[in-house]
Structure formats: C-alpha cells, structure tokens
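Inverse folding, one chain.
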C-alpha cells in the first residue's frame, strides 16, 4: 500500500493507494540547484542576464518602484529575497524614502496590514507597501494600444518612478504559458480595462469553440495573451527583473535576474527542468493536491491544480482534487458564472459578452468538469458550486469510494502532490 501525506490548507491529508493501482507519482525534481537559497539569490543578482547589475543601473537621487506579488503568492518567499534587492539599491546610494513597494494585486482584493507584514517580513517596519487598485482610474496613466487593440493603463505611481523593478516567481500559467516576468505588469499593475482586454484573448475567435488552443500552460507559441502582454510591457520598459523558482518543498531552488524578457526566458527553462514531467500514458484517475495554503485558499486559486491534473488523465476519467478553499470560491463572479447558467454554451456567451478573469476561471472549471469527473475534497459550501458538475466531499475516503463504486477497482492512478505547479506532458 502506497501512503502519501498531501497538503490540505495548513494541514496534511492521508492518502492510501494500493501499490498495484499506482501508475506513478507526478512531481517535479527537487530543484535546479544544490546551492543554499541565499547563494541562489546572490548568484542571480551577481550575474544578471541581458543587463548590468541592479546597483549599476540605479543612481543616488533616483526613485525605484519594486513591484511585488500579493498574498496569494506568499509561497514564493518574498520576505526572504526582497532584502537582497533592497541591499543592492542601498549599495547604489538609493535612499529608503526613494523606494516604493507596489503590490501587484491585478484584479484581486486589497491586502490587510498583517498580509503586508507577511509579504515584506522585516522590511515592513522600514517601508510602506501600496496595493495597486485596477479600478482607481485617477491613479492610472494611459500609454497607448497594443496591436491586439488592448488599451494599456498602468499604475501612475510606478510610471512616475525613475526605475521599475519586477519581482515574483515563475510557474506554469494557464493563460500566459508561464507566470512571472511581464505578468507583474499585466495583470499586476494594470487597469481593469487593460486586464480584461488582454485576458479575453484566451477565447477562440468563433463562438462555440471555447478556449483558444494555444492559450495554455507551458506554451507561448502563437499565444495571443502572452504576445499582448509583451507588447504592453514594452510601453512600461521595466529596468530590472528578479524572479525565483520554488520547488515542491517550498525552497528557492532557482532564480534569474536582469532584462525582463531575457531573464524571464531563462527562468521559464528552469521551470521546465523542475516542474514539467513527461509521462508515457494517461491514467484513469489522478489524485491532486493544490499544494496547501495559500495555493488552495479558494477555488479560484485551486483551479490551477485542476488545469494541470487534467493533462494526466484520460478523457472521461476522474480527477480528485484536495483543496481546503478556506475563502470559498474566492470571487463572486466565479460563483455567478457557475451558478447562473445551466450549460457551457451559455457560459461562453456570457464570457464573450462581458469578459472577466473570474468568469473565465469559473468557465474553465466547468469545462473541465464537463469532460472529466471531478471530485473536490474541500471545506467549501457545496451550494456555492452545485451547478458546476463537481462533486464536493469532505474526506479523501469518501472521494475514493465514489470512484470505486462508479468505475470499479481496476484503475490506474497518478498522484500529484503539488499539482498547481507540476505540468504533466505526454511523450510524443
């Protein structure tokens, strides 16, 4: 009997699988470096890609906006790596009062003071962090349109600084291919209209075709969302980028610094080395954990685990997702597009009529649930998503028993302990 302790919120859940049913464990490599986290960070800052060192780019008297991620990305250990960036700025003669931390909330909610303390760690007493508000038009500046027709509105605080430094982490992303890099700009510090125009490129040109095929995790080729983001980032022209790669144990195993395009491309290759896992066949059942809090803080965030898990299961197969969802669905619009419509054609029509990221997330979840049997082990209120075609249960035992009763005992099973990060790819 194979035994796993899989992350669920801030706890762990016991999962037992008979050895003969276990097809494999899909998880990333332990890391792309044997160095300690501090060494990884210092090495990247000392060897930037495509630019000079950060301390050689900025000068005394100049202002710097450091763009950081919000609390849903607390797993990237900002409080650990941000002091090294501040130190480099200090070496260049930049004063504390000339440094602004801007939280790239995108269209997410504002952060609490306690959450700011988590994000900045010991820096919280030295610096103020400002939450970007995508709907605050008075604090946005218009920079122009991309070739895709996206109007580019960017946070005025960032644009008024001498330099913009992007920070964050790189993982697979269902819209942009990979997170990090230019995603700190769109959706990070962009206006609501900008974010929605960009993300609406995720839909195929014709109604009824649903999601545009090139818009998927681990792909940027012919991906219009990615291409549009890059064009918008060119208006902004960030001075420097620092992105980390975090392994399944929560350690910073890789980092890249330098030019926001070239360094990010190198970081994406690191993610591929760590988290793209090639499989020879698909399974009847995939058991996936989103990776615990905050990756399973709500259904909106946990959907990333579901998106990756489906790549390892046969059409019509079953996916069990372990996700506590302590904040429920996470967004009213996710719930509304799930609950206010009876089929995905109507949901797609609503999405095309009035696109939002949250609606897209809800639509994506229901589309997956239409093609696979999805069982969610969660504390979420079942009534919030009872039209999603997702079965909600409270324990793994309840979930696996449902599968055995419906599909029988003769199943081949994959286990994905960190499904929000790990992308299974079928060997060609």
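Residues assigned per position:
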């Amino acid at each position: 009997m194979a035994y796993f302790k899989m992350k669920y919120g801030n706890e762990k859940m016991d999962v037992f699988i008979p050895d003969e049913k276990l097809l494999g464990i899909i998880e990333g490599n332990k890391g792309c470096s044997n160095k300690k986290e501090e060494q990884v960070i210092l090495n990247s800052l000392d060897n930037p890609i495509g630019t000079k060192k950060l301390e050689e780019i900025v000068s005394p008297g100049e202002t710097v906006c450091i763009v950081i991620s919000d609390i849903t990305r607390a797993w990237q250990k900002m409080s650990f790596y941000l002091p090294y960036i501040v130190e480099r700025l200090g070496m260049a003669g930049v004063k504390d009062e000339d440094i602004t931390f801007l939280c790239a909330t995108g269209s997410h909610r504002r952060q609490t003071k306690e959450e700011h303390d988590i994000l900045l760690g010991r820096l919280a007493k030295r610096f103020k962090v400002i939450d970007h508000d995508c709907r605050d038009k008075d604090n946005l500046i218009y920079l122009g349109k991309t070739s895709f027709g996206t109007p580019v509105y960017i946070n005025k605080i960032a644009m008024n600084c001498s330099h913009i430094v992007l920070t964050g982490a790189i993982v697979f992303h269902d819209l942009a291919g990979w997170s990090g890099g230019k995603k700190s700009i769109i959706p990070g510090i962009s206006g609501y209209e900008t974010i929605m125009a960009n993300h609406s490129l995720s839909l195929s040109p014709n109604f009824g075709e649903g999601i545009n095929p090139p818009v998927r995790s681990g792909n940027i080729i012919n991906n219009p969302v990615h291409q549009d983001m890059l064009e918008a980032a060119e208006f902004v022209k960030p001075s420097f980028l620092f992105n980390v790669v975090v392994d399944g144990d929560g350690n910073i195993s890789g980092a890249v610094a330098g030019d926001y395009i070239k360094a990010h491309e190198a970081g994406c290759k690191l993610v591929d080395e760590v988290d793209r896992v090639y499989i020879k066949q698909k399974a009847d059942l995939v058991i996936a954990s989103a990776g615990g809090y905050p990756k399973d803080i709500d259904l909106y965030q946990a959907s990333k685990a579901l998106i990756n898990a489906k790549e390892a299961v046969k059409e019509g197969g079953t996916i069990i997702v372990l996700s506590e969802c302590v904040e429920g669905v996470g967004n009213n619009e996710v719930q509304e597009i799930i609950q206010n419509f009876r089929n995905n054609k109507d949901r797609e029509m609503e999405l095309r009529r009035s696109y939002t990221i949250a609606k897209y997330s809800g639509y994506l979840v229901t589309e997956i649930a239409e093609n696979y049997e999805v069982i969610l082990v969660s504390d979420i209120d079942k009534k919030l998503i009872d039209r999603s075609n997702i079965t909600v249960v409270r324990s793994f035992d309840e979930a696996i028993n449902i599968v055995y009763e419906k599909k029988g005992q003769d199943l081949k099973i994959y286990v994905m302990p960190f499904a929000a990060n790990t992308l299974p790819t079928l060997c060609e």
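The radius of gyration is 21 Å. Residues 124 and 401 are 48 Å apart (CA to CA).
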